Amino acid sequence: MEELLKTGARVLANEPMASHTTLCVGGPAEWYVEVDTVVQLRAVLLAARKKSLPVFFLGWGSNLLVADKGIRGITLRLKGDFISVSFEDSLVRAGAGVFLPTLVKQCADKGLGGIEPLVGIPGTIGGALIMNAGTRDLEIGQVIKTVEVLNPDGNLELLNHDQIRFEYRASSLAGRVVCFATLQLRHQNKDDIIRSVQVFLEKRLETQPISNMNVGSIFKNPPGNFAARLIEQSGLKGRQIGQAQVSPKHANFIVNLGGAKANDVKSLIELVQKTVAEKHGVKLETEVKMVGL
Ligand SMILES: Cc1cc2nc3c(=O)[nH]c(=O)nc-3n(C[C@H](O)[C@H](O)[C@H](O)COP(=O)(O)OP(=O)(O)OC[C@H]3O[C@@H](n4cnc5c(N)ncnc54)[C@H](O)[C@@H]3O)c2cc1C
Questions:
Q1: Is 134 in the pocket of ligand 1 (CB under 6 A)?
Q2: CATH 3.30.43.10 spans which residues of the chain?
Q3: Nearest to 208 by CA among 275, 176, 253
Q4: Fewer CB within 10 Å, N side or C side of the chain?
Q5: For the chain, where do the domains classified as CATH 3.30.465.10 start and end?
Q6: Is CATH 3.30.465.10 the classification given to domain 85-207?
Q7: Span(s) in the chain for CATH 3.90.78.10
Q8: Which residues are catalytic?
Q9: 169 CA to middle of ligand 1, Å?
Q10: pLDDT tens digits for 83-92?
């Protein structure tokens, strides 16, 4: 603890992860640490290494199912310099902690388009890069020019787009410490961009259970099919374990009706996988990341 406090980072002991995940599920992070600068980040990682503490990088917590027992070691959140954005012509450099919907709107205000389909993804740039977050219209990897990662030796390394592999909801950045990214956008008419942003947001409101606590799609779409369709055809819409429920609005969402436990959600995920495998012979792979489960 003393080592961590010396770094100048904000440190909280036993911080409930339910307050930092969009599903509002998860027990305490042993050490919840917020850093503002690369210098602090380096110092915290060094302190963690000295004490042999594992480090978990938390974005917006919008793709996480955290165990009820919580997370051992350090849960690290990037703030300060990591939530800054700068513009140079049609290039945008954003910290890994920047909230993606805010970035889309900031770019729209500057007449920079090309990332409107990402406006409804409630995650950070860092989380989006690890997941190659996206929609049918656009994945973040498509607009990335460079990414700056912190190497184990404490230096920032600049990776070009062609040094990174972006796949469906995965990227080769997994396991790296993502600090900043530069996106290549286009100059466009501001009103057109804002209209397009509105359309993408309205489409989501129609189809997704936004008013409930959730983590977006629980499963990846299997090749040539849709997880939601398979789950619905298996008669699982509305199925409930504890306070976790397969959303009646969108079958690939599990919602927390209030006070759901991570184990309820996990059991429901396993029930869906088993039922879909029996009825359709398809193994559904999770998109949500399980932490400590
Ligand atoms: C209502 C709703 C709608 C959604 N819609 C979509 C959608 O349309 N498309 C889509 O792809 N996803 C969607 N999601 C899922 C989620 O928003 C994305 O996966 C998002 O990119 C996760 O970002 P995050 O910052 O919340 O990451 P987290 O969930 O906090 O973390 C995800 C992973 O990234 C790692 N990570 C985060 N930051 C860093 C960093 N700086 N360095 C290293 N590792 C890091 C974490 O350790 C973890 O492994 C949706 C979620 C919700 C709740």
A1: yes
A2: 2-81
A3: 253
A4: N
A5: 85-207
A6: yes
A7: 227-291
A8: 169, 217, 287
A9: 10
A10: 999 999 999 9
Identify the architecture of domain 227-291 in CATH. Alpha-Beta Complex (3.90)
Task: Give me 12's structure tokens.
Answer: 């909280």
Assigned CATH class of 2-81: alpha beta
Residues forming beta bridges with residue 165, ordered by sequence position: none
| DSSP secondary structure of 64-118 | EEE-TT-EEEEEEEE-GGGG-EEEETTEEEEETTSBHHHHHHHHHHTTEES-GGG
Q: Please tell me the distance between residue 12's alpha carbon and the centre of ligand 1 in angstroms.
A: 23
Tens digits of per-residue pLDDT, 52-90? 999 999 999 999 999 999 999 999 999 999 999 999 999
Atom of ligand 1 nearest to the CA of 96: 41
The DSSP letter of residue 260 is -
Q: Does residue 215's CB lie within 6 angstroms of at least one atom of ligand 1? A: yes
Minimum CA distance residue for ligand 1 atom 44: 57
Continuous segment of H or E residues that includes residue 168:
none
Residue 271 CA: distances (Å) to CA of 115, 218, 224, 235, 265? 36, 13, 22, 12, 10
